[in-house]
Amino acid sequence: MNTPSSLFGALLAGVLCVPVLASPSDFGANLANLTPSRLLTNDRGQNRHWSGVGRVRNETNTLCTASLLDTRNGEGNATGPAYIITSSHCIHRTNEFVHKDMPLKGSISFNYFDDTLATLKTYPLKTLKWSSSQGVDLAIIELDSALATLIDNGITPLKLAEEAPADGSDILALSAPAWDTLRLSACTQQASAEIVEQPYVWRVTMKNQCQGIAPGSFGGPLLNRQSNEIFGILGTSTRGSNADKKCQRDAPCEVKNGIATRHADSNYGSPVTFLRSCFVEGVLHSNIDTCDLYPTTVIGFKNPQPIKQYYVTANKGSKSIIPTWDLRFTINTPFYRYKTTRRAIDCENPALYSAPVAAENAYINDPIGPQTGMHMLCVVGVESAEQPVTPGMMKNALTLAVELAEPGPARTPDVSISLDKEGLQAYTVKWKMAPPFMSRYTYKMGPAHSTDCLRPVGYLAIPLPRPEPEDDDEGEDIYHHPLEDQAITPADDDFIQIVSTNTHPIKICTYAYDQADQPSTLRVDILKPR
Fold first, then answer.
1. What is the band of 202 on the pLDDT scale with cuts at 50, 70, 90?
2. Is 23 a domain residue?
C-alpha cells in the first residue's frame, strides 16, 4: 500500500527524471571573444570535429590552412571524391585567371594538432577544380582520395552552413599560422565593405577581429560557434600591415562610396555557403543553372604596369597625368563587355555594360574620373552578342581598381637600417620601393658634420626597377613587372647599400617621389660608429 510519503517520493522522482533541454552547443569551449587564440590539442579526441582542418602546401611550399568539405548525400553516404577549400591566393598570385580542372601538386596534412604531429594524416592534391580571386578569394581542390576513405581514417569533414550568421553573431576562426599548428580564435561577425588589395578586388566580403591571424592562417574556416558549420574562409588581414601601403599587397582597405579606408587589426574573408548547390551526390558539378562558379572567364594582361595612382590636377611644376585605363588584354571568349563604376558589386549587375566588343586586340582606354577616390573597371567575357546573362557569368566578372587623388606630398621614405652582421662597423641601408606611392628616391650621404641635406647638390637617383622581358612558351616576349610577378617579391626591388662607419658618423638624406613626381618631406638618418 502506498503511503502519502511514498507517493510524494515517486512523484518527485518522476519530475526529476524529466529530461532537461541542453543549452545551445558552444564549440568555442568558453573561449571569450577577442582574447588570444588558443592552441588546440587532440590527445583524447576532444577536438576530433576539427581533424578535417589542416595544413595545405602546394609545389612552391606556400603554407595555408584548408578544410575538408562534408559532401555526403542526403542519406549520409560519402560517394564522391574528397574536396578541400582554401584561399585562392594560397595557390597562385594571379588576378586575371579563373582556374578550372588543372592538375595540382602538393599535399594536405590533417589531424594537425599540437600533440598529434607524430600521427599526421597526409594526402596528395590532385586537381584544382576551381579557383578565382575575381570578386571572391576561393579555391576548391580535389584530393587523390575518396571522401569515404578519409572518413574511415578518422578525419571529420565540415558541413557547409545554409547561410552566414548575422552581424554581431559569435563566430570562431580556425587556422594554422606559419610554423604553428591549429589555433582557435573567437570573435563576432562584422559587416564589411568591398575590399581592395591590389591587384585584387573582393566584392562580397565579411570581417572580424579574431586574434592570432597571421600568414599561414589564410584559407582557414570561419565557423558558426553553435553548429560548427563553415560559412566562410579567411582571406587577408591588416594585422602587421603598414598604413602607408593602404590598398596594396598584404595591406587591404575597405572601399565605400569611392573612399578607401584602412581598418586596423581586421581580418577579411569570403563567403562559401553558395557552394551547397554546386555538389550533386558528392561531386562538384559545373551546372550554370545551379552553381554560381560557372561559366568562367580567363583574361590575360599585356605588358602589365604597376597599379596606378592618378592625379586629377597638378600643382605648379609637377607632372600632370591624364587618367585613362590603358588596358590591353586577351580573353578566352570571342567578345567581351565592360563598364566603369564606383562600386565593385555593380560588376555583378548586367545593367549598363557596353555592347559586345570583338576580343581581338582587346583594348580599353576610357577616361577615369574626374572625381577623386576609387574607380572600378568591370570586364566579362561573352560567346556572342545574343548570349543570355547568367548569375555565374556576372559573379566571375573581373574587377580592376585605381585611385584618383589630388596631388600632395609623397609618402615618407620607407628606409630600413640594420647593423651589418658581417662587420660591426657597417650598416645595411635599404630603400623600399612601393609604386605608385614611391616611384623613385633621391639620396646623398657623407660625414654627419659636413653634409647639408637642404642643399640640392650631390643627390643621387634611385629609379624604379624596369620590367624585364621573359619568353613565353611560344617564344614571344611577355613583360611582367617585378612587383606583380609571383616569383619575384617586392624585396627583390629594394635598393641596398652597405655603409661603413669606422671612424665618424654618417648622415643619409632621402626624398621619395610619387608617380606625379611630387617629393616627400625630407628624411635624415645618422649612422654612428659602433
1. very high
2. no
